[in-house]
């Protein structure tokens, strides 16, 4: 079992710029082998942007795609490690879990500076990380949208950047 939650620090003061309460995303993993592990992912979001039932960030929130992709990757790696340990009899310990699952997300998680990916690369990776949760028709619809974005970019001879895409359509504004 893997579960993501939003923990609000005891110094529950609103964010200085937005005035909204900020929480930190935590992960709790319980393996079939009995090992239980809780860790902070050091990713901060506002409480209003967290969907409790889905354990994800609202799609219209700033940076939601990146955060949700990281959470999906952690979940996929957890499932992979849990199955591997179950079927191979490999010995499970905290160090193995941290190396296999959390290593890439230590020291600030996705907040660390990385070369910004092109939107089409990012969307393809995101789609791949969600593949196990989506229906075939949803995957085809997303692939079609990606193809149209790529065509637009080629016709207008302008490379797309994530900052160029307006997500206001998610709020119907």
Please describe what this structure looks like.
The protein is α+β, with helices and mostly antiparallel strands. The chain folds into two domains: 1-114, no CATH class; 117-156. The protein is 38% helix and 17% strand. The protein has helices at 64-88, 94-102, 119-130, 136-155, and strands spanning 2-7, 22-30, 36-46, 50-51, 56-57. The strands form two sheets. A three-stranded antiparallel sheet has the order 1-2-3, covered by helices on one side. It has a two-stranded antiparallel ribbon with strand order 4-5. The longest helix has 25 residues, at 64-88. Residues 107-115 have low confidence and may be disordered.
What tags apply to this protein structure?
2 domains, 173 residues, 4 helices, globular, two-stranded antiparallel ribbon, alpha+beta
Number of structural units classed as domains: 2
Determine the structural class based on helices, strands and strand pairing.
Answer: alpha+beta
The fraction of residues assigned to DSSP E strands is 15-25%
Low-pLDDT segments: 107-115
- How far the N terminus sits from the C terminus, by CA atoms, comes to 38 Å
From N to C, what is the helix and strand string? EEEEEHHHH
Rg (CA only):
18 Å
In terms of quaternary structure, the protein is single chain
Number of strands: 5
């Amino acid at each position: 079992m893997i579960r993501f939650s939003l923990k609000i620090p005891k110094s529950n003061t609103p964010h200085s710029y937005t005035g909204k309460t900020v929480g930190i995303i935590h992960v709790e993993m319980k393996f079939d082998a009995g090992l239980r592990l809780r860790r902070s992912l050091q990713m901060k979001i506002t409480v209003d942007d967290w969907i409790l039932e889905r354990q994800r960030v609202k799609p219209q929130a700033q940076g939601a795609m990146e955060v949700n992709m990281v959470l999906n990757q952690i979940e996929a790696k957890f499932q992979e490690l849990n199955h591997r340990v179950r079927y191979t009899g490999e010995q499970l310990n905290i160090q193995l879990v941290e190396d296999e699952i959390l290593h890439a997300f230590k020291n600030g998680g996705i907040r660390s500076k990385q070369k910004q990916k092109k939107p089409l690369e990012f969307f393809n990776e995101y789609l791949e990380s969600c593949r196990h949760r989506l229906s075939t028709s949803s995957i085809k619809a997303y692939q079609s949208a990606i193809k149209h974005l790529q065509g637009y970019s080629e016709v207008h001879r302008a490379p797309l950047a994530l900052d160029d895409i307006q997500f206001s359509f998610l709020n119907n504004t």
